[in-house]
Backbone:
């Protein structure tokens, strides 16, 4: 096939050269003007300026970053406990890798940790182990969740007629095969949708995708509170079963009666990584961000300081004050814990900083944690 030469309205041409292979190659140009390709010399071909989500071979192609609304979906960041397996406290929100919160009030003993066991292309996963299994009563819970801040879901239009369809994708591995649930819910836990996936082979990494029709009803927050909750249930009680899947309900449901009760099996393991939640009905490859960017995103919700001593300075006669800045502005005024050092009080805390005070010299803070988790 001969080359196609396009002559502009001034000097110069653009040449479209067909590849030296058999078959037909088709290039379809859109109907409006814009920029699709910019060369090193600054020249461009005519096409539309993309303002939404384009589709190429059925795959959603967003021109923007942050396709993935999940933070730390690859389990890269684990500030609290690193790779140390830690027992999940009963009836208390408990975090393993950053942004992944576990809640249970069943019996037994369960641990969670960042694990180096991962599918090809990933370095880490979140591992949950049922050290001592326990079956739930009807009202009990056993799940972990990821909460997307309302600001990061504001463009999805959930709760309106323009609610966007989303796709959840992830890698999972478990010693227990069978049908597992996921549930999507709002802040008020009065709107949920339950869907299911199947783990077919024990102790084998499997890739799953689930399409979620956006909810056109209910209240979905678009501020700095909980926008969308993604639940992975591992054995909650029958009060939380639904009889319909992939349908929005005005109640809090986590599973179906056909789902496995993973937590009842002593020694059971459950690994998860590569979690992505994105606009559209087709899962795209996992969106990798720079580690420093992922860490900063996590710092909005939790920050653990273990560096050099932070010293106070003389403020007035006999009064020493230290100004401690967090690495990023946090979601809300954080709670402070794990404080060590030589100080009298933490005088005031804000989303961006806090003050320590001591009525003597040699005032400092050695370690602290700041949490503004959802």
Residues:
């Amino acid at each position: 096939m001969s080359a196609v030469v396009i002559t502009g309205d001034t000097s110069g041409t653009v040449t479209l050269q067909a590849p030296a292979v058999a078959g037909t190659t088709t290039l379809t140009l859109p109907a409006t003007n814009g920029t699709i390709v910019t060369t090193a010399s600054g020249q461009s071909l005519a096409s539309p300026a993309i303002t939404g989500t384009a589709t190429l071979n059925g795959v959603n192609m967003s021109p923007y970053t942050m396709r993935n609304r999940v933070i730390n979906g690859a389990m890269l960041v684990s500030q609290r406990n690193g790779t140390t397996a830690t027992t999940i406290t009963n009836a208390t929100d408990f975090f393993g890798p950053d942004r992944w919160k576990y809640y249970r009030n069943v019996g037994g003993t369960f641990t969670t940790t960042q694990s180096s066991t991962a599918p090809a292309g990933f370095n880490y996963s979140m591992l949950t182990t049922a050290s001592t299994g326990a079956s739930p009563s009807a009202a009990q819970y056993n799940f972990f969740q990821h909460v997307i801040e309302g600001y990061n879901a504001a463009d999805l239009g959930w709760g309106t007629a323009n609610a966007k369809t989303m796709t959840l994708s992830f890698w999972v591995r478990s010693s227990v095969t069978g049908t597992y649930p996921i549930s999507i819910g709002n802040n008020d836990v009065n709107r949920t949708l339950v869907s299911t996936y199947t783990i077919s082979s024990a102790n084998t990494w499997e890739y799953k995708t689930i399409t979620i029709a956006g909810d056109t009803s209910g209240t979905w927050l678009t501020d700095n509170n909980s926008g969308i909750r993604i639940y992975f249930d591992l054995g909650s009680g029958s009060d939380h079963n639904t009889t319909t899947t992939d349908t929005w309900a005005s109640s809090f449901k986590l599973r179906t009666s056909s789902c496995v009760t993973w937590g009842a099996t002593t020694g059971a393991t459950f690994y998860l990584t590569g979690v992505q939640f994105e606009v559209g009905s087709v899962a795209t490859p996992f969106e990798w961000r720079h580690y420093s960017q992922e860490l900063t995103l996590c710092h909005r919700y939790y920050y653990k300081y273990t560096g050099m001593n932070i010293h106070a300075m003389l403020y007035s006669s006999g009064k020493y004050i230290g100004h401690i800045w967090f690495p990023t502005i946090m979601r809300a005024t954080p709670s402070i814990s794990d404080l060590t050092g030589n100080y009298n009080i933490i005088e005031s805390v804000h989303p961006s900083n806090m003050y320590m005070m001591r009525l003597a010299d040699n005032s400092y803070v050695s370690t602290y944690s700041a949490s503004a988790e959802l």
Notes: The chain is about 0% helix and 40% strand. The first helix runs from residue 291 to 299. Helices lie at 291-299.
